[in-house]
Design a protein that fits this description.
- This protein has two domains: 102 residues, Immunoglobulin-like, CATH 2.60.40.1930; 99 residues, Sandwich (Immunoglobulin-like), CATH 2.60.40.
- By secondary structure, the chain is α+β, with helices and mostly antiparallel strands.
- It has two helices and 17 strands.
- It has a five-stranded mixed beta sheet, with no helix packed on it. Strands 12-11-14-15 form a four-stranded antiparallel beta sheet, with no helix packed on it.
- A hairpin with a 5-residue loop joins strand 9 and strand 10.
- The radius of gyration is 31 Å and the shape is extended.
- The longest helix has 41 residues.
Length: 280
Amino acid sequence: MNNLKYFTVLLFIFLSATITSAQQDTAVLNNISSKLQLFTKAFPVEKVYLHFDKPYYSVGDTIWFKAYVTSEQNQPSQLSKIVYADIINGNDSLIATIKLPVANGAAYGNIPLDKENFQQGNHYVRAYTAWMMNFDADYFFNKNILIGEAIDKQMVTHISFITSADKKVTARIVYKGRDGKPYGMKQVNWQILTNFDAVAKGKGVTDANGVLNILLNGDPKKPVYEPNSKLLTLVNAKENEPPVATTFSLKDLKGKNDLQFFPEGGDIILGIPVQVAFKG
């Protein structure tokens, strides 16, 4: 019996110490969490990410991108209303800086790669906000961009659209060199881009005449493209060289709306009620 009492006392002391220690640890953790929240509120962290319309560019091309400015938990930042983007060449020389307004954590911009300021070679894009300049530059967005030789010096392309009886649309693209020789048996990777997002992708090989056919809508009732969509192709034209990127606008291939009216008696006369049938 005495042993049982002794064991009970020891157990009570152990549990009391454990509870006291746990309470102290909880108090310490709560204190750290409270201070961290105060620090985060006083010095919020912003991040910038740029989403580019394609991975490769050429001199004379235009870089199109969408910027995302986020804060804690990747939510749209309400802090900065301007985002800056720099493009820098391989010699670390600043070529251009653009300033873009931010709305709901997003901004849209473009950088024309004119022949006067850009040459073939490696470049990189840096993006940031004024608030981010208060902290280490390692937090800036950075991305390497390879700019190739001017497209008009490398390749001649022609695109046409073919609509079948079942309303499937095929893009027929012809690739040729500046000397007129077709880029035959060349691998081509392609993407359909809508608002900078790839909504469809695939790959193929040109035939002996440099022709590639791309089916744009396997299901005519559910086309993947929109009137503002673009078709991006990357052609492996030469060995040991970066692919040549070409972009084609996709016009509205859904067809024009046709709405016809058929008034009773053949005419509509102002002020006189008439029944009208219609066909769309």
